[in-house]
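Sequence design from tokenized structure. All designs in this work follow the same two-part layout: the structure record, then the generated sequence. An example of the structure record is given first.
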């Protein structure tokens, strides 16, 4: 049945070299699609009805797919390492049994490529494993909204895909032993303008990133496979705060029309002991918009913003993901 589908990603040792194991993520949709283009030759020839069957060559163009998940308080480090430019590798605390992973934006991207395996069940009881290699995140979106889980969608470009219905060909998938979803009840927004905290009654927060990657790197080298994507444009990090229009929200509107730079932090508390997540943006600038009144609801404010480089050596965006260390054994007293 449909819920027998599975998706996992594994870090590659080199771009396009398939990983041997994967970490499982509880994806919510299947958008992994390969693309083929056709080189067609048409010229003068008497008696042709339409393009000839032997004048079309198929070309493998790779493809694209999304990994859409609810964020859990354990097991998300690999996906974040694909989304951000730098990753410190994780620092375990041998006393508390948690590991802190730090991810940052950067001037250059050292994010690795991944193998993504999508297992699709057939209606007659088989499972077909589709192995996508050379998967690189090009953009991502994170959303926290009242009455919902915190969600992350990462868009991957991939180099090639193969498939097999033989169980032995499927890569093993490992899941966290225990994990709980981050949700809106444990999400807090901390906003500062002119060094002073500003209360925000937001019911939705959205963060997006376009990593500025060039993905169509093809050359005359005897095959159609693309080379590893590289950064070719300025990355763009943006966001939106939506909520009620309050006296404090007026300060955000005034910051927008004055062009002031604010700082933003978002704290997420996990259910597992010691689990947490924190996003820090030292410099953001609101790009709109005017509040809106209504005849049947309270006045609301939607404030899009741009995340900027603070210019002092700090990352434009920093995410710290703290999770229980797998297999941790408390030290003996």
């Amino acid at each position: 049945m449909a819920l027998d589908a599975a998706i996992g990603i594994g870090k590659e040792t080199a771009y396009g070299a398939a990983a041997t194991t994967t970490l499982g993520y509880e994806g919510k949709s299947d958008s992994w699609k390969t693309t083929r283009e056709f080189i067609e030759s048409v010229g003068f020839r008497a008696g042709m009805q339409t393009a000839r069957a032997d004048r079309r060559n198929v070309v493998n163009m790779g493809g694209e797919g999304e990994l859409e998940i609810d964020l859990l308080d354990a097991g998300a480090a690999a996906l974040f390492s694909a989304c951000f430019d730098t990753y410190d590798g994780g620092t375990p605390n041998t006393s508390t049994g948690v590991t802190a992973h730090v991810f940052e934006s950067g001037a250059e991207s050292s994010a690795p490529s991944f193998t993504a395996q999508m297992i699709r069940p057939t209606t007659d009881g088989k499972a077909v494993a589709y192995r996508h290699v050379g998967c690189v995140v090009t953009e991502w979106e994170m959303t926290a909204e009242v009455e919902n889980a915190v969600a992350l969608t990462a868009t991957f470009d991939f180099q090639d895909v193969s498939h097999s219905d033989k169980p032995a060909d499927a890569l093993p998938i490992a899941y966290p032993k225990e994990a709980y979803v981050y949700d809106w009840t444990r999400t807090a927004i901390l906003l500062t303008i002119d060094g002073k905290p500003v209360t925000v009654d937001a019911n939705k927060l959205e963060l997006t990133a376009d990593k500025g990657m060039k993905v169509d790197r093809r050359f005359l080298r005897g095959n159609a496979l693309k080379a590893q994507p590289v950064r070719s444009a300025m990355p763009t990090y943006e966001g939106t705060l939506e909520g009620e229009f309050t006296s404090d929200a007026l300060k955000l509107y005034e910051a927008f029309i004055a062009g002031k730079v604010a700082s933003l932090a978002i704290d997420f508390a996990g259910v597992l002991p010691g689990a947490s997540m924190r996003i820090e943006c030292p410099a953001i600038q609101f790009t709109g918009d005017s509040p809106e009144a209504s005849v049947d609801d309270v006045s609301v404010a939607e404030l899009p913003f741009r995340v900027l480089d603070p210019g002092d050596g700090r990352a434009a965006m920093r995410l710290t993901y703290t999770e229980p260390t797998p297999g941790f054994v408390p030290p003996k007293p």
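DSSP finds two helices and 22 strands in the chain. We note this feature because it recurs in several other targets discussed in the main text.
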